[in-house]
Amino acid sequence: MRNAASPAIRRGLSDDALLDLVQRQTLTYFWDFAHPVSGLARERNNQPYEYDWRETVTSGGSGFGIMALLAGAERGFLPRADVLERLRQIVAFLGQAQTHHGVFPHFLHGGTGATLPFTPKDDGGDIVETAFLMAGLLCARQYFTATAPAESDLRDAIDRLWRAVEWDWHTRGGQSVLYWHWSPRHAWAMNHAITGWNECLLTYVLAAASPSHPVAPAAYHDGWTDSPVFRNGNSYYGIELPLGPPLGGPLFFSHYSFLGLDPRGLSDRYADYWAQNVAHTRINRAYCMANPAGYAGYGENCWGLTACDGDAGYGAFNPEEDRGVIAPTAALSAMPYTPAESMAALRHYYEDLGSEIWGPYGFFDAFNRSQDWVAESNLAIDQGPIVVMIENHRSGLLWELFMSCQEVREGLRRLGFTTPHLGA
Fold it and tell me: N or C, fewer C-beta in 10 Å, the chain?
């Protein structure tokens, strides 16, 4: 049953009007529901775990949220001057927050900036979440380009945060690979090398791009690719998949790094990343249409397995770990890759299922029709990509902003990428 606070469903909207509606409504998560002190994105809006959702903000999800706010300003959904002030609030707070060799933790206290443990040993720097945060901040730096002091000061403050990140620290003494976590209490105890095809490509690009603490290209070529689930080359449902685990893994692999990193024409010695992401999306959809486990609701307009809340807890759902849980963010954030199929899914979610899954902050996080279950939650890491990837589909805004960074282009060159953004 629809939450009493949920907006009424408006059927028969044009595609553009429906995209406007979804972007605008989803933005409220980052605008109205942001933490009042820091302006950062709360990790979620419900209390299934021990941590206090009211005070817990997420570094990576805030990076996604910053990108979403820029889309909102560009479309006129939010006043540009107000977005500028919100970003000044965020950046000032981050400048005083606790970091670890310039690296932000996964979770922070939204009022004090103190590190909040994500897990008992994950209580320090998270280089992947920091990469997502930095991508959002760099987009903001490229968006607010006026000479007025408010904008120039914002750019300077973002540069200080960007230059403070010690990407090379996360090579653990100069190894040819990045490590995900470091803790002031547990050091490298989590021992999680970032390898294989997943959501972390952006981390290597920014680590190579850093003007102050870069890592050598060997970390990318010898470390990132050193995994049995990096190369694939098999076909599923008649679709060849260049990289990744069998059947592609959860769809956020093709979303998180590519909110800013433009996959159009992006390639290196390992893959064409547009082809990779389109294939991954099509395979995920084809699997849901085949529906080998017979879950209720799956079909050509109801598809998309990714990380989200589920009826039995949070999971990184994918064709190899399918429990009947569909997350709207999966198909909607794939809008650039499968525009017709994603638009059909959006219309189905909104017009046919909206009375159950459409809420104050856009679509609820997930649903399982086999269990007659709908999440009570929204999550920053799921809401943000909806706004951003719809915008990239419509205008390419975030892709153009991020790829306009000279440092990003130099990092891509160092790693051997080609992209139209590098010019001839």
Answer: C
Q: 144 φ, ψ to 5°? A: -95, 90
Return the structure tokens found at 351: 């017009």
Contact 73, 26 (CB under 8 A): no
Q: What are phi and psi of 379, to 5 degrees?
A: -125, 140
Rounded Cα gap, residues 153 and 84, in angstroms: 11
What percent of the chain is helix, strand and coil (3-state, nearest 5)? Answer: 45, 10, 45
Here the tokens at position 88 are 């000044």
0.85 surpassed by pTM: yes
pLDDT at 4: 45
Q: How far is CA 337 from the centre of its chain?
A: 16
What CA–CA distance (Å, rounded) separates 219 from 216? Answer: 6
Look at residue 318 and give its three-state secondary structure.
Answer: strand
Average pLDDT estimate for 308-313? 97
Report the C-alpha gap between 258 and 248 in whole angstroms: 16
- For residue 216, which of 228, 224, 227, 207 has the smallest C-alpha distance? 207
Q: Which residue bears the tokens 């949220």?
A: 65
Cα–Cα nearest to 378, from 68, 99, 42:
42
In this prediction, residues 329-338 reach a mean pLDDT of 99
Phi-psi bin for 88: left (phi > 0), alpha (psi -120 to 50), beta? alpha
Exposure on the CB side of residue 99, measured as CA atoms within 13 A: 23
